[in-house]
Specification:
- The structure is a single chain.
- With 106 residues, this protein is of the alpha+beta class.
- The protein is built from four helices and four strands, in the order E-H-H-E-E-H-H-E.
- A four-stranded antiparallel β-sheet has the order 2-3-1-4.
């Protein structure tokens, strides 16, 4: 079995008028992916939209390890908070679902 990678998931309730902007910022070519791509330890991001509640989204970010993600956030803390603050306008709420080990193969 492959070694696990670190993943964390967030849930977002997105404002109707900001769905396009949210999908762009959090999607596969969005601002978060471009930012995280500054690290060799970043693997990918998935954006999921709820079929029953179209304003509800889940992001799943994959990193080589929790320590690598934590180090990246610490090193780029001001940039991280700047993007996070700008994206707050898109949502009614956001919640960390959790941090996990993932056995996905890349």
């Amino acid at each position: 079995m492959a070694s696990p990678v670190f993943t964390y998931m967030w849930e977002y309730d997105v404002k109707n008028e900001h769905q396009d902007a949210f999908e762009h910022a959090y999607g596969s070519e969005g601002e978060w992916v471009r930012f995280f791509s500054n690290s060799n330890a970043y693997l990918s991001t998935e954006l999921h939209r709820d079929i029953e509640r179209p304003n509800r989204f889940i992001t799943v970010d994959y990193w080589t390890s929790k320590a690598a993600r934590d180090n990246f956030q610490k090193r780029y803390e001001s940039e991280f908070h700047k993007i996070d603050k700008a994206c707050e306008a898109f949502t009614v709420s956001e919640k960390l679902i959790g941090e996990f080990e993932c056995y996905k193969t890349y």
